[in-house]
Design goal:
Layout: H1 2-38, H2 44-60, H3 67-84, H4 96-113, E1 135-139, H5 144-152, E2 156-160, E3 173-177, H6 181-195, E4 201-205, H7 211-220, E5 222-226, H8 232-242, H9 244-248, E6 253-257, H10 261-272, E7 277-281, H11 287-294, E8 298-301, E9 304-305, E10 308-309, H12 310-317, E11 328-332, H13 337-344, E12 350-353, H14 358-380, H15 390-407, E13 412-418, H16 421-428, H17 430-447, E14 454-458, E15 461-466, H18 471-486, E16 501-507, H19 514-530, E17 535-538, H20 543-550
Helix pairs in contact: 1-2, 1-4, 1-10, 2-3, 3-4, 8-17, 16-17, 17-18
Length: 552
């Protein structure tokens, strides 16, 4: 980690040196043109080229520590813009006074470049969200059996009778009786300060209580209250919501479009050190293909990129219905608020003004990515389980199938179906049936990787896509899940009961289309049902399928 941080900081220093040398060269070339301009031969094309140079300096200088240079270049750029807006021909009709004033200002730029840069201190190599530990602490004799139940869901739950003599292992969540919460809250804060850990979330277990009792628990820092007997499925759902693992999920993905290669690479390095995946484009020729392949959470794009306009690119992206909700954020040195609003009105969502400090950029991008994912989740996820809904899990399978064809790795798709689910609903009621569905969803989220798309396919049926996982490995993992789920005990007024699940698997590499792989997994599922349920069956492609695959 330390060596990686050193390497990235070294790369950032090289980028700064590259910026200085490039800008120094550009200003030297500019100074060679000044005598020519003083003779009154400044053309419109030359002035537009000057505007582009000033725009790049204004947008990037502050990032590399040259704040005064950036501000001064921005002021000159604005004067040039105002002047350009009045010109309608290819020649410049300007007084010698205006030209002389412009030249004097341009000469001052070199002076500002030689100022000592003021840079932000190196950023730590860590994502904005802290590294997490999934250990749950169960406190108090009445809750002893709870640890075993939570371990079935894939949590690392540890029972202790009291808080004495615990080691420094980070704890993500504490579950304890209500009467112990006051003491636990004090202990939790002291321990977090001592070991420099994030304080654990606290869930209280006790009587439902009146307003004052619940308010007291909230004031002490509790994040939830459950009554006995505990509804395990609901508790697991709440733990998932509070879990740092659940909050971090997959790394945020940003598509960065900027014609300034040095500045774009600086942004990429800064964001990458905090766990964000960044794809840089300095020329947007393959923009649409990159959107499909990379599927970013947000697009960061400059407004003015010489031959290309960010506003026009944003409008072009919106041609496709798939990208209508993709957040597009302009990252530009444009200061005029009217111009910003005009740009936003044509397809973008936010406007970030350059220069922006590295910490501000990181925090802003994290917030925008989080907001984008929350909005996407409302559209793409099933309301009961939080997993992808029917259409989006099929879309995820199609995307993974394309990736498999391109990269050549193995991926397995699984269809899971709760056994005799109609009987459960008929006997115990639909609300209990919903608890069973949520329990399986939670178990899948705990036992499979964050990179494995999960979806509720419909009713009591689920789809899991085990990326870069062959059929044999997937079978072992799903058999383990079947065994764990069969061991869960559900409660209702009609008595305790357990539920089993049947699974069908198919390796998607053997099929020309994603839909064919899904149908094959479905056939394997029904084979499992015929064999007695509660287990896993695999689809083995006939030779004709493999021969057809070899032709392509």
């Amino acid at each position: 980690m330390a060596s990686e941080m050193t390497a990235i900081n070294h790369q950032l220093a090289i980028l700064k040196e590259r910026f200085v040398e490039r800008t120094r060269t550009q200003l030297r070339e500019l100074s060679n043109c000044l005598p020519h301009w003083q003779q009154g031969s400044l053309t419109l094309a030359e002035l537009m080229e000057l505007q582009q140079l000033l725009h790049r300096i204004a947008g990037s200088a502050g990032t590399f520590g040259y704040t005064r240079l950036g501000l001064y270049a921005g002021r000159i750029e604005q004067q040039v813009n105002d002047f350009l807006s009045q010109q309608a021909s290819t020649s410049i009709s300007a007084t010698s006074f205006i030209i002389d004033e412009l030249i004097q200002q341009l000469l001052q730029l070199t002076h500002y470049l030689e100022d000592n840069a003021t840079l932000e201190p190196p950023l730590p190599l860590a994502p904005l969200a802290q590294e997490y530990n999934s250990q749950l602490l169960i406190v108090g004799e009445p809750l002893k059996a709870l640890a075993t139940s939570l371990n079935h869901y894939g949590f690392e739950a540890r029972y202790v009778s009291n808080l004495d003599n615990l080691d420094a292992t980070p704890i993500s969540l504490i579950i304890a009786p209500s009467e112990l919460i006051a003491d636990i809250a004090v202990w939790n804060k002291k321990r977090a300060d001592l070991y420099q850990h994030k304080a654990a979330y606290i869930i209280a277990v006790g009587e439902e209580g009146d307003f004052n009792a619940r308010y007291r628990l909230a004031k002490l820092g509790a994040s939830g209250l459950f009554t006995l007997p505990i509804n395990i499925a609901s508790l697991v759902e709440r733990i998932e919501q509070l879990s740092p693992k659940h909050q971090v999920a997959q790394p945020s993905k940003v598509l960065l479009i900027d014609d300034d290669e040095t500045l774009a690479e600086h942004y990429r390095l800064v964001l990458s050190k905090t766990g964000i995946k960044v794809r840089v484009m300095t020329q947007p020729h393959h923009l649409l293909e990159t959107l499909v392949e990379f599927r970013p959470d947000i697009v960061l794009m400059d407004v003015d990129m010489g031959n290309y306009s960010g506003v026009t690119l944003a409008r072009m992206i919106r041609f496709e219905a798939e990208w209508l909700s993709l957040p597009i954020i302009y990252l530009s040195s444009e200061q005029d608020r009217d111009q910003q609003l005009s740009a936003l009105a044509q397809g973008a969502d936010e406007f970030i003004t350059k220069p922006i400090s590295d910490p501000q950029l990181i925090r802003t991008v994290h917030i925008l990515c989080y907001r984008a994912r929350q909005l996407s989740k409302l559209v793409s996820c099933d309301g009961l389980t939080g997993l992808l809904n029917h259409s989006y899990i099929k879309q995820a399978l199609t995307h993974e199938h394309s990736r498999v064809k391109r990269l050549g790795h193995s991926t397995t798709v699984a269809i899971l179906d709760l056994d005799h689910f109609k009987k459960i609903n008929d006997k115990h009621g639909h609300s209990v049936g919903d608890q069973v569905i949520k329990a399986l969803a939670n178990l899948l989220q705990q036992r499979l990787r964050q990179t494995d798309p999960l979806g509720r396919y419909g009713g009591e049926e689920f789809v899991a896509i085990l990326t870069e996982c062959d059929l044999a490995s997937a079978k072992i993992k799903l058999e383990e899940i079947c065994q764990l789920f069969a061991g869960l005990i559900f409660n209702s007024e009609h008595g305790d009961f357990s539920v089993t699940v049947s699974v069908g698997l198919a390796e998607i590499n053997h099929f020309m289309y994603a839909e064919q792989a899904l149908n094959a997994a479905d056939r394997a599922l029904y084979q499992r049902k015929r064999l007695g349920r509660n287990g896993v069956s695999c689809f083995t492609p006939p030779d004709t399928v493999l021969q057809e695959q070899d032709k392509h």
